[in-house]
Amino acid sequence: MPGKINVYNLGSKGVNVVKSPVHLDDGELTKAQNVQMDAVGSLGGIRKRDGMARLNSSVMTGSGKGIISLPLPDRSSYVRRFFVPYDYGGGAIGSNTFWESTDGTTWTAGTRGVVPQQLADYGASLGNGLGGGIWRWCVHRNRFYYPANSDGALHVYDGDEDTDYRLFKVPDNPRDGTPITKILSIVPYSSAYLLISTRDSTSRGRVFLFDVANGTLEQLGPETDLPYLPINPLVFQGRVFVGMYHGAGGSGAEVYYCRPGDASWTLDETLSSARGYIYNMVPFLGELYAGVGVDVGSNGVVMKRDKDTAWAAAATSDGTGAGNHYGPMAVSQDGLTIYGFRNSVSGGAAPTNRIMKSTDGASWSQDYDAGSGSGTSNCGIPWVDTNGDMYWVMFSASGANNGRIVKQSGGSYTVVKNDSANFAGPIVALSMPA
Fold it and tell me: Fewer CB within 10 Å, N- or C-terminus of the chain?
């Protein structure tokens, strides 16, 4: 009997011209025309190649002489501008909002927009460094979305108009008697939507789908009361996955998934005891990798989920101190290398802080020595540039007057901004008038 068929993961692995059709893996195509990969997989993996819509229903006769009343934006003078949030380390709030750079090398304290959400404003459970690894802001269609420190409202900075707008505050969670709703993560979902996760209390959070055109919020899995704090949601295999961050130690963090329209979240995995802090997750070579922080008596770890839902440790750090972590994670522009920021204390070999890499997800090696000082013990989610360069923001737990910005280019690392700078990650960039 005819019915609806939901297809997920279609074309996510591209075209394979080597294997026979019967030997193709799930997600592979034998051929495709006018196909463009959907970076977030929200439409099943592929979509029609972007292009200009036709002017009318038939081909114009004769020669086109011109078009009137259809101005095209002239962006020939635009430059890419990096933004790193200015963090006051829990002190008095000043007028500076973001560190800015147009070349990734020279940085100045700017006053565009408003002061963004501060690490200290999240409270002790998130203000100890992990807050810098949260994807607290993002660039989507050349618009910069971020929460304000003053009231937690979502703001958007329009690079074309060089103007900042206040959008809304996320409604408080009706399950909480004393709500303290704050935006945790803002992540692109598709060309029309953002994923927004919130901290509603010290042990409860939600995830929303935000329609950037209509301004509507849809809570995902509204019948599930997510335990603790949902961090950095992402799309994998056509579903929204989110890792949890436990404010108290001694218990394993959970990984949940759902699809828009689902009434509830599905529990995918509960990590072992002490592995209670998921920094972020990234897809790599068809599998899902999670950077995890731990409590006393355990190591930081990278957990891997294969396509058949099985989770296992892919890499571990040494040291057994409180706050050991492996994360955040990132994948190179060409998709061939996965990176993880590693912090090892209490018995870990030097250097305490380092960037690790792997080309297969199994064998990991040190790619950058970040030293053993507290000023580089935490890291924000790096910016992966279109030319393959990566920018890493490192800082201490306090976020005040220490840290560095490191540029990775062509396999080499360069410190482009060093200590005595108040900042915390992550780092973003958008195109705007010079």
Answer: N
Q: Kindly state whether residue 10 falls inside one of the protein's structural domains.
A: yes
Is the pLDDT at 273 greater than 70, yes or no?
Answer: yes
Whole-number pLDDT of residue 324: 83
**Alpha-carbon separation of residue 108 from 3, 56, 84, 341 (angstroms):** 59, 49, 10, 26
Spatial neighbors of 391 by CB under 8 A, at least 6 apart, are 82, 104, 382, 383, 385, 405, 406, 407, 408, 416, 427
**pLDDT at residue 166, as a whole number:** 94
In a domain, 386, yes or no: no
* pTM, 2 dp: 0.81
- pLDDT tens string 235-255: 999 999 999 887 666 678 899
Four-point Cα dihedral 425, 328, 206, 298, nearest 10 = -120
What span, in angstroms and rounded, lies between the C-alpha atoms of 84 and 272? 34
Question: Cα–Cα distance between 208 and 289 in angstroms, integer?
Answer: 23
**Does the residue 25 lie in any domain?**
yes
> Which of 229-266 are b and which e, b meaning 16 or more Cβ less than 10 Å from the residue's Cβ?
bbbbbbbbbbbbbbbbbbbeeebbbbbbbbeeebeebe
Q: Alpha-carbon distance 316 to 319, whole Å?
A: 10
Domain hosting 3: range is: 1-49
> What is the per-residue pLDDT across 325-374, written as a single tens digit (0 to 9) for each?
898 999 999 999 999 999 887 777 788 899 999 999 999 999 999 887 76
DSSP 170-201: PPPPTT-SS---EEEEEEE-SSSEEEEEEEEE
Cα–Cα distance measured from residue 377 to residue 345, given in angstroms and rounded to the nearest whole number = 10
Phi and psi at residue 21, in whole multiples of 5°?
-55, -35
What is the rounded CA–CA span in Å between residue 97 and residue 6?
A: 45
Say if 356 falls within a structural domain.
no
Domain count, the chain: 1
